[in-house]
Amino acid sequence: MQLDELLIAAAEAPPESRIDYRDPLAAHGDSAVEALMTPSWIGDPSYAGFAIQTIRKAGELGASSAVGALRRAASIVSMEWHQKDIANALVSLGVAAPRTKSSKKQSVAPSTAPIAPDDLVVGRCYRRLDLHNGGLGGNRQKGISYPARGTYCLLFSDPNKVHDYGYKDQPIGDAGYRYFGEWSGAGDMVMTGGNKAISDRSPELYLFTAAACGYVFRGRQRLVAVDHAKATRDGREFNAIVFVLETQP
Asked: Among candidates 24, 29, 36, which has minimal Cα distance to 123?
């Protein structure tokens, strides 16, 4: 598997089986170390332990950046047991552990960094709150989220979840995606609101899929077709809009 594929798989894996991806990721050496030294991995307490163990393994396999990365990680992680993991990892690689800041200072969360659509990295996991607070704007609750004066649209999806109305989004091959629109009334889905935004703002459609870590960015999408499917609301059958998307290179 390619590095990006492994990162996505590890992010989506249950905590008890995520360790299975440590060695395959570590085999990518310095590239894996760089990918794991990001806010969505080493900066997230839920994933920092895995990142530390994978960076240590990469160092054991010869990654030259592993020691420096672990030293930097000591000033990033906020949990005491992660500090201990780093110290043990450095010792296993033959170097002394760095001094750390007081736990009081470490517990202070940094402010959300500014983010623009072009800053998004395919395969990286993001917290939805950070995306909105970082400047991307839009509605924080809807699956179709877009700023009123912007030219882009954020699409949030969970392909593993069946909607209350009986349908679910799903990938098509390696570069396609079927994304259901939103309801704006009691009848059929119509091309207004978020649905119109998808149509009007293509190809600046940024797709995220749900994972244990938050939302994994799947890349910028282009609308290639509009389809329809049957859906049931309150015991009655209606037409739902299905957007057929294609990942842009």
From this structure: 36
Q: In total, how many domains does the chain have?
A: 2
Question: What CATH number does residue 144 fall under?
Answer: 2.30.280.10
- Mark out the alpha helices in 107-178 (DSSP H runs): 128-131
- Rounded percentage of the chain residues whose pLDDT exceeds 70: 93
- CA torsion through residues 134, 202, 11, 88, sign: negative
> Per mean pLDDT, which range of 14-28, 40-54, 85-99, 179-193 is the poorest?
85-99
Q: Is residue 91 part of a domain?
A: yes
Same domain, 225 and 139: yes
Statement: residue 104 has pLDDT above 60:
no
**Structural domain range at position 91:** 3-106
Give the model's pLDDT for residue 133: 84
Angle between helices 80-92 and 45-60 (to 10 degrees): 0
Q: What is the pTM of this model?
A: 0.57
| Same-domain pairing of 84 and 204 | no
Distances (CA, A) of 31 to 26, 64, 89, 128, 166: 9, 11, 19, 26, 41
DSSP annotation of 134 reads I
